[in-house]
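[recover] target loaded
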């Protein structure tokens, strides 16, 4: 059995994850170059039983070229770059590692809130330039934090906010009502209600057809003028042009973004010149999270290839049948 690895992070801080694969008779082969395109992956995928990817696109061309592929595993959470439908049609399982990086993402989310509210990055640059200037910012305490999405990350954000003295209003299409009641979360009836009430609006959503562009001109117009948008989820959730227009016209106070569409952020993006906090999609990039993800990925690959288990797959219920060589 062989696994092709294109993820730059797999096993980097958790070499035991690689050893887990090898100890179970799985040969680990690294892709020929970093940041491979779908065409490049397709050119190398023949003969492999599993594929471990990072942010690479895995489209129908990869599955068309695969001759014995059983599993594509995302080294992380988001699956928007993997064509799950094409995988299912080819009989390939698709898996991710939900929850493994929840704390890392939640911690950076709070950090960006504080940076945006107090204009910390702006003051750092002012001081480095030799000037001694200060401007008043906002405190977190006493504010309303709006959260869209109460999955693993959204719930952890709520937990970390418990000491800040904030009111939390959230919307989720399938909310855990008992957990929300225990955690003091006010469930909104709609996403629009969260936009209208939030002093700090946090995106903790996955990207899909329903959530793409959820932050558009209409919803930005619902926000308070002193509100901040925080996105550590997916860039495709935000209409960049609409956000830049809202910021330019001072319809909202500011934003802090860690995710973009496309990535890397284009040099001519309006977001670069609008005076907001930007970070290079590093929310999940912590030593601890990387180790957690690698170990989960290794376990799942072994479960599928060696033991014939499919519980880890997001498309496990699609009636996919394993290749005959799997017991």
């Amino acid at each position: 059995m062989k696994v092709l690895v294109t993820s730059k992070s797999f096993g980097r801080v958790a070499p035991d994850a690689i050893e887990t694969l090898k100890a179970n008779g799985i040969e680990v082969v690294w892709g020929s170059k970093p940041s491979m395109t779908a065409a490049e992956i397709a050119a190398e995928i023949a003969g492999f039983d599993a594929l471990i990817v990072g942010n690479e696109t895995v489209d129908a061309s990869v599955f068309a070229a695969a001759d014995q592929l059983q599993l594509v595993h995302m080294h992380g959470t988001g699956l928007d770059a993997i064509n799950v439908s094409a995988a299912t049609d080819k009989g390939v399982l698709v898996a991710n590692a939900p929850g493994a990086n929840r704390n890392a993402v939640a911690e950076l989310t709070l950090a960006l809130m504080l940076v945006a509210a107090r204009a910390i990055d702006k003051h750092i640059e002012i001081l480095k330039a030799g000037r001694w200037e200060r401007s008043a910012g906002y405190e977190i305490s006493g504010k309303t934090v709006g959260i869209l999405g109460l999955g693993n990350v959204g719930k952890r954000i709520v937990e970390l906010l418990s000491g800040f003295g904030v009111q939390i209003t959230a919307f989720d299409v399938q909310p855990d009502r008992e957990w929300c009641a225990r955690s003091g979360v006010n469930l909104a009836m709609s996403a629009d209600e969260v936009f209208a009430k939030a002093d700090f609006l946090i995106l903790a959503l996955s990207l899909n057809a329903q959530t793409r562009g959820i932050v558009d001109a209409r919803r930005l117009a619902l926000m308070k003028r002193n509100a901040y948008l925080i996105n550590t989820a997916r860039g495709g959730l935000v209409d960049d042009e609409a956000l830049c227009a809202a910021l330019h016209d001072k319809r909202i106070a500011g934003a802090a973004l860690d995710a973009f569409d496309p990535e890397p952020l284009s040099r001519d993006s309006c977001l670069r010149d609008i005076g907001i906090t930007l970070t290079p999609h590093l929310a999940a990039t912590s030593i601890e999270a990387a180790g957690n993800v690698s170990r989960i990925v290794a376990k799942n690959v072994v479960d599928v290839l060696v033991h014939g288990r499919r519980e880890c797959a997001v498309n496990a219920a699609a009636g996919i049948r394993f290749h005959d060589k799997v017991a």
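[recover] notes: The CA atoms of residues 54 and 117 lie 32 Å apart.
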